[in-house]
C-alpha cells in the first residue's frame, strides 16, 4: 500500500497543500482530507458576510470539490481522536448535516492538523437558542437571519461579550446589516470587561471606540461577564443585563482533539510543535493555524500566521513522505492589523502607522479578496 497523507481540516494553513494536492498524488501517495463541511470559510471575512458586504460564495473555498478534482479522498466528518502509535485518525461521519454514530478509522503515514479553534462558552448556563459565536463561520448566517427576523417586529438588544477583533467587527457589521435591511435599529451593547480592547495600542483603541460609538454601540466597561442564562448576562459585580441575542466573543481555544489523544500540547491545549511545525512527540505529525502551540515562541491567534505557515507546511509534509530534511518556519515580524467595522470603515495599524476610515477598509477588502481568489481558482 502506498504511503498515506491525512489532513485534518482544509483551513488557512493547508491552502498551499490543497492547491498542490496533485503533486502528492502524482508521486504515488494517497491523500485524505477530513472536514465537517464541504466548504471552508475564510474567518477574516466572516463579519463582513454577517453585515452583507460579502455573499457566502465570496468567502469560502470548495474544499471537497478541490480535493476530489485533484485525485484525493474527501471525508465529510469530524476527527475526534488521534492514535499516534497505531497511526489512526478516528472520525465521526456526518450524514444529512448531522453527526452519525458511524465511525471510521483512517490510517496515515504522515498527518497534518489544521483543526481550527472554537469560542469557549463555559459562562453559558442551560439552553438558549439565541446565542451565536463567530465560529464556525456558517453560524453567522443563522445569526443574520435571526437578527433580521426579530428586528423586523420590535427593537431588540444584542449583546457582544468581549472586545477583541471578533467582537468589535461583529458589532460594526450588525449595525450595517440592520441599516441596509431597513429594520428597526437594535440596541447593541459590547461588554468589554474592565477595559475596552485591553492590550491594544492606545490609538487603535481610540479610533475603534470613536467609530463604534458613532454607530450607537454602547461600550460597557463595568466588569467581566460571569454568567449567561436565558437572555440574561450577569457580571462579576452582580450587575445584570437582558439581551435578545448574545454573541460570546471572548477569544478562541484550539481544538480539544490533541489533549484527548494524549499528544504533547502547549498551555492552551494546542498541538505543541517545534520550529518545523512538527509535533514535539511524533515526527510524522504536523500542524498549523489556530490549533497549534508553537514551542519556540507564543503566537497570536490571527490568520496571518496560518498564511505564513502555508509554504513551510506543504514543503515539510512532502519532505516527510519523501524522507528528506524539513525546513524551519520563521513567524516573521510585525503583521498588518486591519479591522472591518462596517459601512466601509476600518481601522489599520502597523509599525508607527495607524489610521481609520474608508481607505483602511478598502485595503483590507483588497487583501482579503485577492487571498480568496488565489485559492478558489486552484
Q: What distinguishing features does this structure have?
A:
seven-stranded mixed beta sheet, FAD/NAD(P)-binding domain, alpha/beta, 378 residues, 23 strands, 2 domains, 29% helix, four-stranded parallel beta sheet, 10 helices
Helix content: 25-40%
Q: What is the CATH superfamily label of the largest domain? A: FAD/NAD(P)-binding domain
Find the structural class using helix and strand composition.
alpha/beta
Radius of gyration: 21 Å
Strand content: 25-35%
Strand order of the largest sheet: 7-6-5-2-1-8-19
End-to-end C-alpha gap = 28 Å
3D structure, described in words:
Helices cover 29% and strands 28% of the residues. Helix 5 packs across helix 6 (165-181). The protein starts with a strand and ends with a helix. It has a seven-stranded mixed sheet with strand order 7-6-5-2-1-8-19. It has a four-stranded parallel sheet with strand order 12-11-10-16. It has two domains: 4-118 and 252-322, FAD/NAD(P)-binding domain; 139-251 and 336-376, FAD/NAD(P)-binding domain, CATH 3.50.50. The chain is an alpha/beta fold.
